[in-house]
Description:
alpha/beta, Rossmann fold, 5-stranded parallel beta sheet, 5 strands, zinc, ligase, EC 6.3.4.20
Amino acid sequence: MVAEPKIAVVLLSGGLDSMVVAAIAREQGFTVHALTVDYGQRHRCELEAARAIVEAQGIAHHVVLPLDLRAFGGSALTADIPVPKYDGGAGIPVTYVPARNLVFLALTVAFAESAGAHDVFIGVNALDYSGYPDCRPEFIASFAETARLGTREGVEGRGFRIHAPLQYLSKADIAREAVRLGLDTGLSWSCYDPTPDGRACGVCDSCALRRKGFADAGLMDRVDYAGA
């Protein structure tokens, strides 16, 4: 008797973290389905990055879901607000998209339930990140309970496991994981403010954290940064 494939749905932004998480899910024996949300983000390069990652990893099913959050605005990623340069400051930066992971995880669970999957992977990180509240472990734990209470699968006793394997890793650790998994980091995209010629700016929060991570790990990142 042939065993049913284990299916996991990965929230795949196209960034380094989600690329690594998709590879970890595959390493754990899951058949990966991926959800990418086209939310009107100014860094639209990440949508092409997500497609490249799907092709490179042989992901079984990829949904790119349009959900234009520019209608709400409220973030430098979805409104005409300048993307700030990284200054290492405290507080939640203007690149925070209101309730983004709350909305995206709900969509990912909906995809998982329709696909017969009970495992959801997300690349949130609570150490080297920009202070977003929806990257914290307590949010992930709380959402797992919400998914149990608000879905047919949960009510019938099957529920969902929300995997956040990078939760307590530094960016340097994540860079090392990418190398261990044999990933081409140049396929991923992290920059919030691409240059007109399509290069990573190198100085936004996301670029700065990524560059520092690779430097701390003593590894070379294959991304082309402006002015590098």
